[in-house]
Amino acid sequence: MALDDATAATLPRHRAEAMIAFAADVLAAEGLRPADAARAAELMVEADLTGADAHGIFRLPQYVRRLRAGGAKPQPDITVRRLAPAVAMVEGDNGLGHLVMSRTAETAVEIAREAGIAWVGARGSNHAGSGAVHACLPLAAGMVGIYTVVASANHMAPWGGTESLLGTNPLAIAIPMGEADPVVLDMATTVVSYGTVKGHALRGAPMPEGWMIDARTGEPLTDPARSHEGILLPVGGYKGSGLALVLGLLAGPLNRAAFGRDVVDFNADDRTVTETGHVLIALDVARFLDPAAFQAEVARHLADLRSSAKLPGVDRIRTPGELRAERRRDRVARGVPLPPALLSLLDRLAEEAGVAPLGQR
Questions:
Q1: Which of 212, 46, 74 has the alpha carbon at shortest distance from 131?
Q2: How far, CA to CA in Å, does 208 sit from each of 43, 191, 211, 212, 245?
Q3: What is the number of other CB atoms lying within 10 angstroms of the CB of residue 258?
Q4: Best label site of 31, 38, 294, 309, fewest CB within 10 Å?
């Protein structure tokens, strides 16, 4: 979830190029190959540009801790196994999730060019940030991207339970629209991601009711410092719980990756290998119809939706990806707002890594 507009307006902004260079320098200092460090930093900051503030450079200190503790490998040997004409598996060798997903997207696009569609699983991976960032990677090839992952910690119980056995297991779908903004749905299967809870904890801001409940009492939990005592609520009640379950089975057991009790909480454990599994599907629109004709038809329907009758008090009907695209344009032009508490953490990283701090770039 993005910082709210009122909060963002009060914060200093930083150029995306400076953030990418900073993150790349820090990762390189931790042993990543320069090209890998740059690619991971680019995908990380893309989350910040599009408003997924809890999944961008906010996560850099956590990634560094895992690299230092041996929980993730700085120089993985990421390989691809072709399993069928339209199916492949990426073996991540415990590399950073951004690097594993970059290779996964390249593979999916390559296969979809041949077969029209690709289902590419990934295993031996790690936390990879924003799902929409990876779902959008096939867009440049004129392809639909569909992404899911077993989240890097369990924060939700099966419907009616109290044990955290399910992750926020997101679903992201990106539909190409040529020169226009793509249609992008990016949703956790919980009301909010746990990264959003961590963001509230960093800023010392209370959570609204409806995000978490106390696992012992079922009462609303609004103090993010007590989040370890609670469970996140699923979106749509039992439907969100069911969606998290089936998405997790496709990204987990189907890939021989972690799910359920086997998931390692990477928020609490920097050393244990997480065995994270992802799925990326790429679909070549041109196999169905001329892409321009498809985009025109989608645009027509989106216009109908946006201009449809509104409920009282509603000033605008938005479609998936609109706010994301607006925020990206704003942040590319004006920079990314970063809270002081996060800047302090990044300054400490800079000192430890022996690189120039973000504020001096």
A1: 46
A2: 30, 11, 7, 9, 25
A3: 23
A4: 309
CB atoms within 10 A of CB 28: 20
| Contact predicate 40/96, CB 8 Å | yes
Gap between the Cα atoms of 199 and 331, Å rounded: 19
d(CA 81, CA 69): 29
Cα–chain center distance at 323:
16
How much of the chain, in percent, has pLDDT values that exceed 90?
93
Q: What is the pTM of this model?
A: 0.94
Q: Which residues contact 113 (CB under 8 A, 6 or more apart)?
A: 141, 284
Identify the pLDDT of residue 2. Answer: 62
Bridge partners (DSSP) of residue 280 are 120, 147
3-state secondary structure the chain: CCCCHHHHCCCCEECHHHHHHHHHHHHHHCCCCHHHHHHHHHHHHHHHHCCCHHHCHHHHHHHHHHHHHCCCCCCCCCEEEEEECCEEEEECCCCCHHHHHHHHHHHHHHHHHHHCEEEEEEEEECCCCCHHHHHCHHHHHCEEEEEEECCCCCCECCCCCCCCCECCCCEEEEECCCCCCCEEEEECCECCCHHHHHHHHHHCCCCCCCCEEECCCCCEECCHHHHHHEEECECCCHHHHHHHHHHHHHHCHHHCCCCHHHCCCCCCCCCCCCCEEEEEEEEEHHHCCCHHHHHHHHHHHHHHHHCCCCCCCCCCCCCCCHHHHHHHHHHHHHCEECCHHHHHHHHHHHHHHCCCCHHHC
Q: Which of 81, 119, 75, 127 is nearest to 101 (CA)?
A: 127
Q: Which residues are paired to 190 by β-bridges?
A: 234
From residue 311, alpha-carbon distances to 154, 298, 307, 314 in Å are: 37, 24, 12, 6
Which mean pLDDT values do the consecutive 10-residue runs of the chain (361 residues) have?
A: 72 96 98 98 98 95 97 98 98 98 98 98 97 98 98 94 95 97 97 86 90 93 92 96 98 98 95 98 98 98 98 96 96 96 96 96 93
